Predict the structure.
Amino acid sequence: MSAALNAITVENLRKVYGATKAVDGISFEVREGEVFGMLGPNGAGKSTTIEMIEGLRRPDGGSITVLGLKQPGAANHIKTRIGIQLQTTALYPRLTVTEILDLFHTFFRGRKTISTAELIQLVDLDEKKDTHSKALSGGQRQRLSVALALVNDPDIVFLDEPTTGMDPQARRQLWDLVRALQQRGKTILLTTHYMEEAEQLCDRVAIVDHGHIMELGSPQDLISRHFQEIAIEFNHPEGDTENYRTLAGVNNVVVENGHVSLYSTDVPATMAALLQRTDNSGALRNLNVRGGTLEDVFLKLTGRALRD
């Protein structure tokens, strides 16, 4: 794909802190109008990578192009065309939603902006427009934080763990907002700890660990590339990895806190062997059979769950 169709191009990006290579030769592209996810455990290098793209950190090597402009050389120009929602945003507690948005508009006088009324409608805060920010729920504060990132009508929106701490309903409301932003032509770079969120929202994802991109592609491509198996899950407090690994059709076993996941290429044979074995060792609880997920891919590539 030509560079003209890339909102972001990163080539051989590096960042070193003493003896630690936080980012070690990362390269990828974010296409215009797509939702691109970066997934990785704490310390993987994804936050450092994104902060260098945003212009908040200076790279030690490699190149970054944002909307055809070189970072950090054109950092001031780039800042006018991007919007950043941080994982935690300090809001003025005694100002209302409308007052905070109006205040942020004053930072962009003479430039293109999205009106306060339109932003409030976009993030579904109409009923809270006259409410002080300190009285908003966690999900409402997150939506206001996204609205603040959109004041300057940016071409690229950076969302850092936007649904952390939200209940399921609030999380899905924010998913709808991300989809609405994409429909408006925005390019979105998203970090998340929720694999379901990445599968639902992202056109492509990069799995990052130890400063490297381990895999990159659409969620379904990554799943089909790494998992032809079917997962059989259940709770069994006496679960033993080696004991289950000998069952017919089983390629891999993960046992964590009494929760067992068997990855099978022959589900009928595995189920028959499993049920025969458990006749003598107690009933299986919460038995579930499912296809592979992005969580499975992540665990296979990094050897740890994203929450670790």
In short: The chain is about 30% helix and 30% strand. The chain has two domains: 3-218, 228-291. The chain has a mean pLDDT of 89. The first strand starts at residue 6 and ends at 17.
